[in-house]
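Need a sequence for this fold. Nothing fancy.
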């Protein structure tokens, strides 16, 4: 097999520029000795550089044709290819009891889902690096107060420090995507506990941004009803994009207290 045909249904855009692949692999140079899981290796353009680094590397690939290509062209990957859907596998079972790094030229159609899944395994994955749509990268890295700031920004910045590393042009892919791409790196921060329910925190963030143009006094009504006394607090005068992570934690505690009083 000489090459794999990109499949639109899988959102495949194969990176052709080896220098870009080398730079992406270099984003985890500091993770010496850690196992590495690559998502969506395709024809192995990034994989070859990851193999050179000597990491304990495994790859997860849903596309049967890509799996066959990797088996035929990368003998070093024998026993290291997980032919499955990343969104469905138990990540804790890949290297039981060990932390590992996540990397990839991520399929654009599921990039947000990949990052939500990362949050489910945040205590196992101290570093996540790779390429996604520029727009999504900007959203993830956006500070509070900016238009791009949203649900993904808050939830990821709660647990990870975000670095927007560099932008990648469309012409280095086959087929070229309609958007520019970007490489980002997420590094686990020191936070261990929110001081509130993580489930409620996520619910508060999502509820607030569901009506992002409204003040929190209006957008939080689905959780607290119309006439909660807590709405007199100044934080409810703000819109969701004005709140940083610490303020969202405070908001969640206020919501939690109010919900307990109401029952």
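Here you go.
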């Amino acid at each position: 097999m000489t090459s794999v045909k990109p499949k639109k249904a899988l959102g495949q855009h194969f990176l052709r520029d080896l220098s870009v692949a080398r730079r992406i692999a270099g984003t985890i140079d500091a993770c010496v000795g850690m196992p590495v899981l690559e998502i969506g290796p395709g024809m192995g353009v990034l994989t070859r550089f990851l193999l050179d680094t000597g990491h304990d590397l495994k790859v997860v690939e849903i596309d049967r044709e890509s799996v066959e290509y990797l088996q035929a062209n990368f003998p070093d990957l024998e026993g290291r290819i997980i032919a499955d859907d990343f969104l469905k596998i138990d990540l804790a079972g890949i290297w039981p009891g060990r932390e590992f790094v996540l990397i990839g030229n991520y399929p654009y159609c599921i990039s947000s889902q990949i990052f939500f899944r990362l949050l489910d395994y945040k205590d196992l994955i101290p570093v996540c690096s790779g390429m996604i749509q520029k727009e999504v990268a900007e959203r993830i890295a956006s500070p509070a107060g900016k238009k791009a700031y949203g649900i993904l920004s808050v939830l990821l910045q709660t647990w990870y420090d975000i670095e927007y590393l560099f932008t990648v042009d469309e012409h280095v892919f086959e087929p070229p995507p309609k958007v520019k791409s970007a490489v980002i790196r997420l590094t686990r921060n020191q936070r261990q506990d929110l001081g509130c329910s993580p489930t409620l925190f996520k619910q508060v963030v999502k509820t607030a941004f569901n009506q992002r143009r409204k003040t929190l006094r209006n957008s939080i009504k689905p959780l607290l009803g119309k006439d909660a006394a807590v709405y007199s607090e100044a934080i409810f005068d703000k819109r969701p994009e004005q709140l940083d992570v610490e303020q969202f934690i405070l908001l969640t505690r206020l919501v939690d207290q109010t919900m307990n009083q109401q029952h």
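For context: The chain has ten helices and nine strands.
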